[in-house]
Write a structure and sequence with these properties.
Blueprint: H1 12-21, E1 25-29, H2 33-46, E2 50-55, H3 56-62, H4 64-73, E3 82-89, H5 92-101, E4 105-108, H6 115-129, E5 135-140, E6 144-148, E7 151-153, H7 164-171, E8 175-178, E9 183-184, H8 198-207, E10 213-215, H9 223-231, H10 244-251, E11 255-260, H11 262-278, H12 285-308
Parallel strand pairs: 1-2, 1-11, 2-3, 3-4, 4-5, 5-8, 6-9, 8-10, 10-11
Antiparallel strand pairs: 6-7
Length: about 325
């Protein structure tokens, strides 16, 4: 089956609309039935386009058949503007594999390679994907932090604005993930005063006007979830995300896709911990998992409305 058979869309048209109307399409990571249900329900209820981001480790955890079975069960309509996206694909082979499964968008992450090799690998993926009308995202610069086995780096390097035109033209990719100070995981900033490099973003936007730019590692790390987790037995200290105002400013500078993973993980964990602590007699997974799912849903709605500005854009 192709992605159109699942009611999915690629990201080309929704990114064009996002740039024109100054909003960002949220890319929420999903890794089980609960996260998938929460994200799609939030997108539908807020009438927001959405990208369902699946990492290689999440794909391995769920299994390809299980994932695509759940996507089919959602009965997605093309008018809802929902894309299924491979997040941080490590090789052309995994990108080709998921395209054949029915993914409508893929990211090839060769950012740790040399500039030349990054271009070569990214072009190979774009050449293959475009045969199936699948969108391709690549990354230039390196984002630090750890989220899972496929998304981790001890080092970061900002995107060089002087490289972006050559990279996009040589690779023929559809969107570009850039590094301007975000990071993966729940510990994104060392201090409350640390800001994203908007000077770099501005230079990139000037060189690539109206080209879709992507922010990874851009979770806001809501303080209420940190507090709930710690209140009910967790141990998360000094966790800091990207402030809402900085993310909204990035959207005004052509960031048209913002990746969110850690926020959903925190929301899910907070909901489950709170439920089990308040109802220690409960051993029904449906009940406490539903509490975690509701927290994800509420957070997605909030970020769609307050950060992405994507409500009522589908």
């Amino acid at each position: 089956m192709t992605y159109a058979d699942y009611g999915l869309v690629n990201t080309k048209d929704i990114f064009t609309d996002a740039i024109t109307r100054h909003y960002a399409v949220p890319a929420f990571n999903v890794y089980n039935m609960e996260t998938l249900s929460a994200v799609v329900s939030a997108a539908r209820d807020s009438h927001s386009p959405v990208i369902l981001a699946v990492s290689e480790s999440a794909l391995k955890y769920m299994g390809a058949d299980m994932l695509m079975g759940m996507v089919k069960g959602l009965k997605i309509k093309e008018s809802e503007k929902i894309a299924l996206h491979l997040d941080h694909g490590s090789s052309p082979e995994i990108c080709q594999e998921v395209i054949k499964l029915g993914f409508s968008s893929v990211m090839i992450d060769a950012s740790k390679m040399s500039f030349k090799d990054n271009m070569s690998v990214s072009k190979k993926v774009a050449d293959f994907a475009h045969q199936f009308n699948v969108s391709v995202e690549a990354e230039l610069g390196t984002i630090s932090g750890i989220e899972d086995e496929n998304t981790q780096s001890q080092y970061s390097s900002y995107t060089n604005p002087d490289d972006v035109i050559k990279f996009v033209e040589r690779t023929n990719i559809d969107s570009l993930a850039i590094a301007i100070g975000t990071s993966h995981g729940a510990y994104k900033r060392k201090s409350e005063t640390e800001e994203l490099r908007f000077d770099i973003l501005d230079k990139i936007t000037q060189r690539l006007p109206n080209f879709p730019l992507v922010l990874h590692g851009a979770s806001s790390i809501p303080e209420n979830f940190i507090n709930l987790i710690n209140t009910y037995g967790g141990n998360l200290s000094n966790a800091r995300g990207i402030p809402t105002q900085q993310l909204k400013r990035a959207v005004e500078l052509n960031i048209c896709k913002i990746n969110v993973d850690s926020d959903s993980r925190l929301a899910f964990t907070a909901g489950i911990r709170e439920s089990l602590a308040q109802h220690p007699e409960n051993f029904n997974p449906r009940e406490y998992l539903s509490c975690g799912t509701k927290k994800i849903y509420d957070n997605c709605i909030k970020e769609i409305q307050e950060i992405m500005n994507s409500a009522n854009k589908a």
